[in-house]
From TrEMBL:
A GO molecular function held by the record: amidophosphoribosyltransferase activity
Cofactor note: Binds 1 Mg(2+) ion per subunit.
Biological process, per Gene Ontology: 'de novo' IMP biosynthetic process; purine nucleobase biosynthetic process
Active site (UniProt): C22 (nucleophile)
Cofactor(s) essential for the protein: Mg(2+)
Domain annotation Glutamine amidotransferase type-2: ranges: 22-241
Keyword Plastid set for record: no
Annotated Mg(2+) binding sites: S304, D366, D367
HAMAP family given in the database record: PurF
Protein name in the entry: Amidophosphoribosyltransferase
PANTHER family, per database record: AMIDOPHOSPHORIBOSYLTRANSFERASE (PTHR11907)
Matching PROSITE patterns: GATASE_TYPE_2
Length: 490
């Protein structure tokens, strides 16, 4: 039962991956706040390519620029940055999981409250946002977007607490799910991480200006110093006079998302004190220990498969070669190939490097397998380049469960490993053999003896089905018949 993926369809290795939903950045007390935020978002572009936005405060008013598209397309000209005046700014890059890709869902979202304005941006997904939104609308709230993140603003607005920080804390203590939040008021830069710390958030400093960002790569690009991770369940408040922390959820054991190491975070980022690159290479080493096969060459599926393939090669002693070449200049402007061109099976983004493949037993190493549609084409492309054998190795366990914490995963039925066993998956992608890193193996690569099933060290439910928080919106108690909505047609 070979996967019937249309081999003549234009070929894109990135088509069948999980997508991270969003990156956040904020800075307080720097004259180039908006330019630095644009650079920080550029470094976080891998966390969301659909839209980007920046809000600044210039001691008089908040200023906002939000656009559909990439950061570089909208925030690299002096004119735009010039309009975003002020010593404080927050920014967001987006890949939507809830809420359409429309301008009114582009973050940061803003609300005018009694006592002043507040802008908020969010990485993650609230698993009770629909339930809360419904209650808010019943109580007369008027929602400006269809994004789950707006619920936080609505709850801050409804809080009867005096101080904005107390109102913010009252709001987030009603939220479930995964979140890293960055907010800006006229006097404060506020950050918050959910009680388990599922999504990442770090604190940095640039010449005395505090910075909050999803990943350390956003600090590196502007030469800022890494101070520390924002802790799980921490609300951090930066003001011109210093930094305060609150822990409204009490102490809980952190369970960060393990997929940040497998795929989402940039290899040059440090997450939880670990180099993402080093962890991926170690996952490759562990994969070789667990799934070795006689072979002549180790070939990564670029780019995310590279560190694991290097580790696999180092552990197995089989040479590593770039057997798949990526064309970095495809971009979006390339004319859509005509049907007859497509029928040639053009390989727009990736092609086989025949000299490293022909007549050889090839081990292909990739970070993860989702629907399997792209893997079918990769195996076929390597066979077409003359490989004697093709063995497929994944540096993560089979993905059998959907996410709900801010990752765009297909519905369960579309996940290959949720449908098929190992042998059926091997036959589907057309490889001579197929193997995944085990769940315990991925924990060993992180430096543990294995998964602590009583107290799991990470959030890993796409592999284990062990969801770490309630999933109220999915509990089926609420029938979410969505009322007719406004669709912007002009
Ligand atoms: S399912 Fe869990 S482990 Fe997998 S990506 Fe989502 S939060 Fe991370």
């Amino acid at each position: 039962m070979k996967g019937e993926a249309d081999l003549h369809e234009a070929f894109d290795i990135d088509a069948d991956t999980l997508r991270e939903e969003c990156g956040v950045f904020g800075i307080l007390g720097h004259e180039d706040a908006s330019a630095l935020t644009a650079l920080g978002l550029h470094a976080l572009q891998h966390r969301g390519q659909e839209a980007a936005g920046i809000v600044t405060f210039d001691n008089e008013q908040f200023r906002a620029e939000r656009h559909l598209g990439l950061v570089g397309d909208h925030f690299s000209d002096a004119e735009t940055i010039g309009r975003l005046t002020g010593m404080a700014a927050i920014g967001h890059v987006r890949y939507s999981t809830t809420g359409e890709t429309i301008l009114r869902n582009v973050q940061p979202l803003f609300a005018e409250l009694d006592g002043g304005g507040i802008a908020v941006c969010h990485n993650g997904n609230f698993t009770n946002a629909l339930t809360l939104r419904r209650q808010l609308i019943r109580d007369g709230a008027i929602c400006q977007s269809t994004s789950d993140s707006e619920v936080v603003l609505q709850l801050v607005a409804r809080s009867r607490k005096g101080k904005i920080v107390d109102r913010f804390i009252e709001a987030i203590t009603q939220m479930e799910g995964a979140y890293s939040l960055v907010a800006l008021t006229s006097k404060k830069l506020i950050g918050a991480r959910d009680p388990l710390g599922i999504r990442p958030l770090v604190l940095g400093d640039l010449n005395g200006a505090p910075i909050l960002a999803s990943e350390t790569c956003a600090l590196d690009i502007i030469g800022a110093k890494f101070i520390r991770e924002v802790e799980n369940g921490e609300v951090i408040v930066c003001t011109p006079t210093g930094i305060e922390s609150y822990f409204p959820f009490g102490k809980q054991t952190a369970r960060p998302c393990i997929f940040e190491y497998i795929y989402f975070s940039r290899p040059d980022s440090i997450v939880g004190g670990r180099s993402v690159y080093d962890v991926r290479r170690e996952m490759g080493r562990q994969l070789a220990r667990e799934t070795q096969v006689e072979a002549d060459v180790i070939v990564p599926v670029p780019d995310s498969g590279v560190p694991a393939a290097i580790g696999y090669s180092q552990e197995s002693g089989v040479p590593f070669e770039l057997g798949i070449i990526r064309n970095h200049y495809v971009g979006r402007t390339f004319i859509e190939p005509t049907q007859q061109i497509r029928a040639l099976g053009v390989k727009m983004k990736h092609s086989a490097n025949r000299s490293q493949i022909e007549g050889k037993r090839v081990v292909l190493v990739d970070d993860s397998l989702v629907r399997g549609t792209t893997s079918v084409k990769i195996v076929q492309m390597i066979r077409d380049a003359g490989a004697r054998e093709v063995h497929f190795r994944l540096a993560s366990p089979p993905i059998r469960y959907s996410d709900y914490y801010g990752i765009d995963t297909p519905v369960r039925e579309k996940l290959l490993a949720a449908k098929y066993g190992l042998e059926e998956m091997r036959a589907y992608i057309g490889a001579d053999s197929l193997a995944f890193l085990s769940v315990d193996g991925i924990y060993k690569a992180m430096g543990y003896d294995g998964r602590d099933n009583a107290n799991p060290q990470f959030t890993d439910h796409c592999f284990t089905g062990d969801y770490p928080t309630p999933l109220t919106d999915l509990s089926g108690e609420q029938d979410f018949i969505r009322p007719p909505r406004l669709v912007e047609v002009g």
